Amino acid sequence: MGAEPRIRVSAILRWHDRVLLCRHEKPGKEYWLLPGGGVNSGESLVDALHRELGEEIGIDEDVPVEGPVAIVDSIAPVRSFAAKHVVHIIFAGDLGERSLDAVTSHDAAVRGHRLFTMEELDGVVLHPPIQRFLRRWQPGDPAVYLGALWVP
Question: 36, 9 in Cβ contact below 8 A?
């Protein structure tokens, strides 16, 4: 038997007509994630999300969120040294009129942030690969299961 699936919470954070993404790096690769991270044992999904938003983008006050708006199951197609299975539970929030000048990360894995228009999302490596969902999703839409997705 492999390791248990890891639960990751994240948020589609809109600022005007853009979405905020966090840049991560692995050897030789750059990719983007919705801000968020792992859920600790005994921690609610929303509490984990607010903690991670504080760590990854420095927003310590509670951003109002709705959802979950999507669930994505990422399973590595090839078993390697460590099987990888991540269940992404995605919420949504509006950054409203907040100034994003103070957005900073306290997470060593995050190598920067950027606001993307929906049209720009096709040019980035996004984990999980939910560009099509982000382009069509509107606040108030029902939650959706996006199935098992994996990008090496």
Answer: yes
Distance separating alpha carbons of residues 31 and 71, to the nearest angstrom: 20
Place of tokens 């029902």: 142
CATH of the domain at 36: 3.90.79.10
d(CA 21, CA 19): 7
Task: Confirm whether 20 is domain-assigned.
Answer: yes
Q: How many domains does the chain have?
A: 1
Helix (H) / strand (E) element for 132: namely helix 131-136
Q: Spell out the residues 6+ positions from residue 52 whose beta carbon is closer than 8 angstroms to its own.
A: 9, 10, 35, 36, 37, 38
- β partners of residue 30: 25
Sign of the alpha-carbon torsion through 31, 7, 89, 104: negative
Where is 49: in which H helix or E strand? helix 45-57
For the stretch 73-102, pLDDT in tens is 888 776 665 678 889 999 998 887 666 555
Instruction: Read off the pTM.
Output: 0.84
pLDDT in tens, 92-149: 988 876 665 555 555 555 567 788 888 998 888 888 888 888 888 888 888 888 877 6
